[in-house]
Amino acid sequence: MNQNTERKRPPPLKVLSGQLRTAENRGTTDGGDGCVIKLKKGRTLQASLVWMQGTVLEVHLDRNTVLLIDETGTFAVQGVNNIPRGKPCLSQGKYVMVMGVILALSPEPVVRAVKMADLSELAAVHRRMWKLEVEELQQLLA
């Protein structure tokens, strides 16, 4: 992807893994051009850069991946070894934020990480608020 394409990319859309799992590909079969997220009342949103949160289930540094889970299911994050200051996020049980580009939707969503942050210190608050944040942003954008 060239620099001009990166600049034109819209800001990240807050999503749940379950929404990606049921989304429709936009253009390619692997989700590389993003997807269309289905919302309530027949509305949709386009997404290629997403913001997700979840708990680290598995860390596979040899494969440059982690497996996360949110309240709607699991999702994989690739490219974790390349994230500046991402190492503190890479332990089982941590609650983290991931911003990344959608690589695949099914059978499990896969995101290539652009940024990661450890939210474990206030995990209970972040976890409770996340679904509400996702819903509020999506309602504003739809």
Notes on the structure:
This protein has 142 residues and is an alpha+beta fold. The protein has a single domain (3-133), classed as Nucleic acid-binding proteins (OB fold (Dihydrolipoamide Acetyltransferase, E2P)), CATH 2.40.50. Helices cover 21% and strands 39% of the residues. It contains 3 helices and 9 strands; from the N terminus they run αβαββββββββα. It has helices at residues 3-8, 17-21, 123-141, and strands at residues 13-14, 24-25, 35-38, 44-47, 49-60, 65-70, 73-78, 95-104, 110-118. The strands form 2 sheets. The protein has a 5-stranded mixed β-barrel. A 3-stranded antiparallel beta sheet has the order 2-3-4, with no helix packed on it. It is globular, with a radius of gyration of 14 Å. The two termini are 27 Å apart.
What's a quick, concise take on this entry?
The chain is α+β, with helices and mostly antiparallel strands and 142 residues long. The chain is built from 3 helices and 9 strands.
Task: Let me know the CATH homologous superfamily.
Answer: Nucleic acid-binding proteins
Average pLDDT works out at 86
What would CATH call the architecture? Beta Barrel
Shape: globular
- Counting structural domains, the number is 1
- Stated plainly, the CATH topology is called OB fold (Dihydrolipoamide Acetyltransferase, E2P)
| Strand count | 9
The percent range for strand residues is 35-45%
Amount of helix: 10-25%
Cα distance spanning the termini: 27 Å
**Strand arrangement, largest sheet?**
5-6-7-9-8
Output the helix-strand order. Answer: HEHEEEEEEEEH
By DSSP (H or I, 4+ residues per run), the number of helices equals 3
* Structural class computed from helices and strand pairing: alpha+beta
Largest sheet report: 5 strands, mixed, barrel
Radius of gyration: 14 Å
Pfam family, one: RMI2
Protein name: RecQ-mediated genome instability protein 2
InterPro entries: NA-bd_OB-fold, RMI2
